[in-house]
Amino acid sequence: MTEAIRFYCGITEKVWNYFPVSPGKYGCVAPVFGSTEKTRQESRVYVPDDVSIIQDSGAFCDSINNRLSYQQALDRQRYHAEKYNYVNKMTHRVSYDLLIDEKWIDGKRTKQRWDTKDADYAVDETLRAAEFISNNRDGTNLVLSAQGVTKEQYIRCTKEIMPMMDINKDIFGMGGWCIIGRYKTAMIPMFDDILFDLIPMLGENKIKKVHIFGVVYAKALGHLLWMCDKYNIQLSTDSSGPQKRPAFGQWGYAEWRDKSYVRPPTSIRGQERAKHVQAVIGWLSDFRNTKWYEPPNKKEENND
User: Does domain 5-241 have CATH number 3.30.460?
Assistant: First the structure.
């Protein structure tokens, strides 16, 4: 069968421990990085010639009090692509959404989901950002991101984003799920419930590609892939985790995680990072043959 899930490896450095950056065919680059307002800085990256790039907006590094204007965010993306020589390698540019799965507390970014009331603002801001970049394409294809804490918010956001998309070129971005692996008990039922409305609606509107940001959690990917296959939608995801895990003494995900793995010496650490990325690419590409490929769970109705 065709590639199950396309993986865009997060590129965050110029070299991997003295070894050339080796993300595979697809990469994801953000113009900034940093977990606090003080440490936020420009990403200094190297993109190999044969890599196709999704350029993120860097919105995850901007606190709500220090967000750029839509024009400034686009200028930052343009500048970064020019400076680090990946303009011709970039296939898609991501809209400057407002993430609902992270909060800035005392100047530090924290993985924490917004409440429903506050998320209404994030949805509206995300929609305004999508409208701006859809009117300022620079001839570049887009990933237009959706946000929302509740199903109602997510569907509302999606309905307003779809008319802005070029269905033959653009990708629908599923934002707000990068913490699902951390809070799976609470979030998987909500995720599944949204999928039952979201994916059929995308399919009916001829959306051909869906990208979920920052998710390598097997259960969520299995449910999403099953739904996407039902409506002939190509699925992709991204993460910098696979190229970093060996540097922290970690190898594998889900059923192939190796808890005996130890951090390799510096002399071969870069090679191990590259091998791990290739292993993740293979796992995701063949994801239909894993135990995780199954339909999402229907939400039980309360008939009391």
Answer: no
